[in-house]
Amino acid sequence: MSNHLSDRVQNMSTSATLAMAAKARELRNEGKDIIGLSLGEPDFNIPDFIKDAAKQAIDDNYSSYTPVDGYADLKTAISNKFKRDNDLDYGLNQIVVSTGAKQSLFNVAMVVLNPGDEVILPAPYWVSYSDIVKLAEGVPVEVLTQIDTDFKMTPEQLEAAITPKTKMLWFSSPCNPSGSVYSKEELEGLAEVLKKYPDIYVVSDEIYEHINFAGGHVSIAGIDGMYDRTITVNGVSKAFAMTGWRIGYIGAPEWIAKGCTKLQGQVTSGANAIAQRAVITALEAPVSKIQFMIDKFHERRDLVLGLLGEIEGFNLNVPEGAFYVFPDISAFFGKTLNGFTINNASDFSLYLLEHANVATVTGEAFGNPNCIRISYAASEKELKEAIARIKAVL
């Protein structure tokens, strides 16, 4: 009876990262030794000091419905975090806590976009951006970036993509899937273009903010003239290894925050009570408490780049953040390996799964048909074995 589903759902893509993870689990259940490099999920345990805060919250009977936009003391911790890490001054009425940063993004799309509004997406972009925009009846406008510019959109590309229907620009820095990090100078270049178009708003997804090897994170909301038109999105899934706790948040102009609270009140209401209490402790801690994870990701990045660099046909750049590499593998298109013809990135990713037992994600899901995403949020042993298998089957 799938034909009775709404057009909205039938026209929506399935998350490619989740689909590949499900396929990998299916093959594992059949007895195959699959190494999963498809999910963007840290392989570290949550630091004990955060676990202790959650246990204390249970003992303190935090079991009631929470305020729709989040506990006031959590929003105070978020406000202090914005000041400390980003030099941004968001009041409590500008902050909304949601069930993960994905819901934060969905909220913003639903409260800002009208049917037909265009949203510029520098490609590659996070896999869910395009479908979230479409669900809000907006129109995604992809701007394909190149590996030789480290997959970063230039001011000239931004200017060329703007039309009278442009309502928003969405991007992430550090970027999922490319690991690219925009510098202050690069963000200032984009801001100079946007200043000509005061009715365009910016969604800045900064969920990977702390996993940054470039020497400092810069928020576009802190660039002159951008604060009142930027929605800064963040959360605790990546840097604190709290993916399953589902807490994300925004700092935004008050009218957008109010709209998100209104929408969320009819969809999920407030986020999980225990998770919110734990996040207060996480955000109040100095970044040094999680530095061990950041250092380990940096080591893994260098390991993976070195090993992949030994495989002919992989075109690599050096990502400066997050925990992904995004190699251009178009040199393999049109080739037949072990009886398997590779015509595109999806074929290449499927070939690695079937012949090397390594799960990656096609770049097509991120708006770039020439690349695949490899997550190095795995142990060094797994990474070495996975890349050895890839090398063997290529």
UniProtKB/TrEMBL annotation:
<feature type="domain" description="Aminotransferase class I/classII large">
    <location>
        <begin position="32"/>
        <end position="390"/>
    </location>
</feature>
<keyword id="KW-0663">Pyridoxal phosphate</keyword>
<keyword id="KW-0808">Transferase</keyword>
<dbReference type="InterPro" id="IPR004839">
    <property type="entry name" value="Aminotransferase_I/II_large"/>
</dbReference>
<protein>
    <recommendedName>
        <fullName>Aminotransferase</fullName>
        <ecNumber>2.6.1.-</ecNumber>
    </recommendedName>
</protein>
<comment type="similarity">
    <text>Belongs to the class-I pyridoxal-phosphate-dependent aminotransferase family.</text>
</comment>
<dbReference type="InterPro" id="IPR015421">
    <property type="entry name" value="PyrdxlP-dep_Trfase_major"/>
</dbReference>
<dbReference type="InterPro" id="IPR004838">
    <property type="entry name" value="NHTrfase_class1_PyrdxlP-BS"/>
</dbReference>
<dbReference type="InterPro" id="IPR015422">
    <property type="entry name" value="PyrdxlP-dep_Trfase_small"/>
</dbReference>
<dbReference type="Pfam" id="PF00155">
    <property type="entry name" value="Aminotran_1_2"/>
</dbReference>
<dbReference type="InterPro" id="IPR015424">
    <property type="entry name" value="PyrdxlP-dep_Trfase"/>
</dbReference>
<dbReference type="GO" id="GO:0008483">
    <property type="term" value="F:transaminase activity"/>
</dbReference>
<dbReference type="InterPro" id="IPR050596">
    <property type="entry name" value="AspAT/PAT-like"/>
</dbReference>
<dbReference type="GO" id="GO:0030170">
    <property type="term" value="F:pyridoxal phosphate binding"/>
</dbReference>
<keyword id="KW-0032">Aminotransferase</keyword>
<dbReference type="GO" id="GO:0006520">
    <property type="term" value="P:amino acid metabolic process"/>
</dbReference>
